Amino acid sequence: MQAQLQPTQFTLAVTLPDDETLHSFYGADSSPAVAFIQQYLQPQSTALSPQPPVFVFGASGSGKSHLLYAACVQAQELGLTSQLLALDEFAQYSPRMLDNLEQLDLVCLDNIGAVAGDSHWQVALFDLYNRLAEHGKKLIIVADDQPTALGFTLPDLVSRLQACTVFQLRLLSDDDKQKLLQQKARVRGLDLPDEVARYLLNRQQRDIRALVSTLDILDKASMVHQRRLTIPFVKDVLHSTFPLTER
Predict the structure, then answer these.
(1) DSSP string of the chain?
(2) Whole-prediction pTM value?
(3) What is the pLDDT of residue 46?
(4) Which of 86-95, 102-111, 226-235 is predicted least confidently?
(5) Does 29 or 64 have the greater pLDDT score?
(6) Which of 217 and 9 is assigned the larger pLDDT?
């Protein structure tokens, strides 16, 4: 199956919020990964040697997808063509969908470990890596674990992945999640008091994307009912939305 790809089309595993940029990444000011990606995406002098690709890994909820999507947004702002592929969505398809991606300025691969057990995909990834390097194009890869722990059996591919500039993202503490949730609430024009934020962390899934989805529900309910976010109001909204999980 040959994929028909558009240069600036995003193929995402989930619908991501509009506020997911490099600047809105939690702790962006002190994040080595954010700082490096910002520099990596800048146009380079032809006199400089191409930089190796970027490999970011971390547990679910550490912000990997946010960082990858934000890199594509940043690339667009710089006038670069980009493509994001969530490989867990395409593992059952032909790796021929990677053909000709070297024509783009930036390729982002999410959840690369999803195709680790397929030898054809491994060869295709190895070839893509080499084509992008040959054409001086940029590549950012995201995975749950470091390159040697993903189960790839093609030694040359593992060697290429190890040659990337590697960053590990850490899971946020509950205090950090609360601050991040309140930051996202402010972007939506919402006041999320400390006690309500703690209530959400204690009663709902602690995955950031699930928490943000809940925040979107509360945002709409707050506008419809013209109510502030208080614990009684939040309980009512969540009970009507998730009757089997919210007590």
Answers:
(1) ------TT-EE-SSPPPTT-STTTSTTGGG-HHHHHHHHHTS---TTSPPPPPEEEEE-TTSSHHHHHHHHHHHHHHTT--EEEEEHHHHTTS-GGGGTTGGGSSEEEEE-GGGGTT-HHHHHHHHHHHHHHHHTT-EEEEEESS-GGGS----HHHHHHHHTSEEEEEPPPPHHHHHHHHHHHHHHTT----HHHHHHHHHHS---HHHHHHHHHHHHHHHHHHT----HHHHHHHHHHHSTTT--
(2) 0.72
(3) 42
(4) 86-95
(5) 64
(6) 217
